[in-house]
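Forwarding the complex inputs:
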Amino acid sequence: MIAAFNSSWRIIEGLLEMLRIESLHLSFGGLIALNNVSFDVKQNELVALIGPNGAGKTCVLNCINGFYRPQKGHIYFENYDLTKIASDKIAQIGVARTFQHIELYAGLSTIDNLMAARHIHLHYNPFWGMIYFGEARKEEVKSRKIIEEIIDLLDLQPIRDTIVGVLPYGLRKRVDLGRALALEPKLLILDEPLAGMNLQEKEEMARFILDIFELKKPLMILVEHDMQVVMDITDRIVVLDFGSKIAEGTPEQIKTNSEVIKVYLKK
Amino acid sequence: MKKESDTFPKLLLEKYQKYGNKKVAMRHKKFGIWNKYTWTDYYENVKYLCFGLMKMGLKYNDKVSIIGDNDPRWYWTELATQAAGGIAVGIFTDCTVSEVKFYLSHSESKFVFAHDQEQVDKVLEILAGLPNIVKLIYWDIKGLWFYSEPVLANIDEVIEIGRRYEKEYPTSFEKIIENTNGEDIPFILYTSGTTGLPKGSMLSYNSYITAVNSVNKINPMDEKDNYVSFIPPAWSVEQATGFVAQLVAGTIVNFPEKPETVRKDLKEILPQIITYSPRLWEAICSEIQAKMNDVKGLKKLAHRIFLPIGRRKEQFISNKKDLPLFLKLLSYIADFLLFKGIKDEFGLSRVKLAYTGGALISPDVLKYFSTIGVNLKNVYWLSEFPFISVHRNKGEKSGTCGPPLPHWDVKIGDDGMILVKGGAFFKGYYKNPDETAKMFRDGWGITGDIGSIDEDGHLIVFGRLSDFRELKNGRTFSLDYLETRLRFSPYIRDCIAVAGRERDYVSLMVNIDYQNVGNWANKRHIGYTTFSDLSQKSQVYDLLQKEIEYLNNNLPDWLRIRKFVLLHKQLDPDEAELTRTRKLRREFLENRYADIIDAIYKDENEFMMETEIIYQDGTKGLSKTKLRIKDI
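Prediction (whole assembly, two chains):
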């Protein structure tokens, strides 16, 4: 009974804190990918998850998304424990993500990729969809309005009708971000959004991330290797190494944390 | 008898009373949709903005600076300022912070309208040194949601303030407009600044309206005509052919979604009236030629067959001869099968009035467009003396700028200087009486250009006096003359001809066209990494040599270019190498690249160029590139 009370209380706490990761443990056979990782993400706080390659950052994200099932631990978001829900349901709850390796339909245009991401918000039946009338039309127009606002926010107008496959890498990353926003997420996870970009592209992307954070106010987790950007734009940083959390704090605290300096920043 | 409208606000009132909600005045593409504004919408937005500014303290002769992309709100702001008796000052959006500071402090602006976060940030950075500024007003809120500086205001707030203030203001807006005077100054437009600091040129309402009316009588605009507002509104040419022309003729002005979407938006509107700078027409010409050179199969065949037909037609037209029936028929076929597609691609298929002005353009570019059925009209224009001459419809003649317009007297001085006198005179440079005095000679305005008038009465402009050079052999020529002709090549983006009394021959520094030369290199499997790398490839040098030799074949021996070098970086207005309208800052360039010029005339084969680079985070680096100097 006490355990049930604690679990319920944590769910309520989860509502208040919005995302709470508790004692996450993930292993693949004998390999421990995550070892007792706990942290939370609050409203109005941009949290970065950093660590050397292989530290377990993407494993944390995959557990949130439901791609991996941790052997132990909980992930509380809204009034759900995400470790017990299918990944498609997790998306419907309001969790969206960008990927390290861009996951877009290369043969579709930018606008079609973004519209495709709206599928979880479209509820008309195939009959109305076939004749594009009534509810189908209303929902499509509403979706198109939302997508156009995202296009405006991310300055994607020049490539609205361009096939994504021919776009330069930096622009495809931006379209991927737009695709995630099209889901109207309550929790937005950005997995290395600046990877492979030059300085100008990074500055633009950082600006878009901050614009999204200020305007849409989702919970945000940023996984990133560019320390300059992480230190500049985030409010709190969680540091992983070999699957364990080794530090957590503000950018100023992390910069001077001896463990982090030893393990990560001097590598 | 009804008095003619002699100010822009009066013209707006006239059009509002004539068209009201029945006619579209503007379209603006936003969120992928063309949003329409009728003349009523235009009028009311101007009215409330005017009242809002007056409530905030705008008074007669106060300056209002506007830094923004082409947008209806630019036009509303400008007219609102003018209706209140204020003076608008246009600033280019790509100006650096120091340039913005110059314009704001020199003009003593009281209000600044800044398009978006980028422009707002520039002004906020220098605000402490601009105590005159009362309000900084923006119209695109993206990124500004949490800015809390008290000086900031959103344009919608100002309009709302104006809506309330109108109710308490003792005079109607119509009466306020009536009080505007044709001899007042509507805006201060800063010159390009090719030599020295930009100067704030002032003309009266009457001058501009006279000039535009004059052009409208010769090349009439229709109220159904569409114009796409694309070139910077801070430029005097856009002010005349877009802003003022609309108020005079009642045309429809269309604002593209973003500068990067202009090409696509042009294709959706297919305007009847279009004005580009010479650089832009050259860039389009280069792109067409480069693509035509690269096509294969049927497209190549069509190009080979129909381009000569277009050229033949162009020769008949320029010699004012009637086309033989057979050639007429072939021209229709050529237009249908080839030229229409090209024109469609650039939004030119419905153009009836295509203007180029503000600088010299190569006659080859004019001929090329005439060949494909776009009759470019050269406008001879200065910020100080608008619309001096322009080609008439079906009277285009390459190599000239058309006959002078009726409101001007034009003569050629003994020194070859083009002198003007007439009804569109400028009132001087703002706060610069010394420079103003230099613009007049015995009551005639000095254009600064050397020219002549041909047997058909067309004005021929050879170039700026300051661009003329004398060689050691005593012969004089215009550097601009060579440069405009060389820019006809699709592979040359820019070039700087070099000569002087101490020099035996002309040499050239060239900026390659990165895109076209890059495509050329790709097709030949010539690998390269950066602009610098591509520009120094021996194959690229050979390519450019052929282009220069083509021009040389049409020049007298003493004028031929003997040596050239391909510059390792693109010329950049942010580095003060070009003006904001992409004209060369010749003196600055000759100083900056003095070492290269020395190496050329010392007969060296190469030069090690060291350039300091300042990265965006402030760190500095040194770039070293070995530049080849090639003989022709």
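The longest strand of chain B covers residues 620-631.
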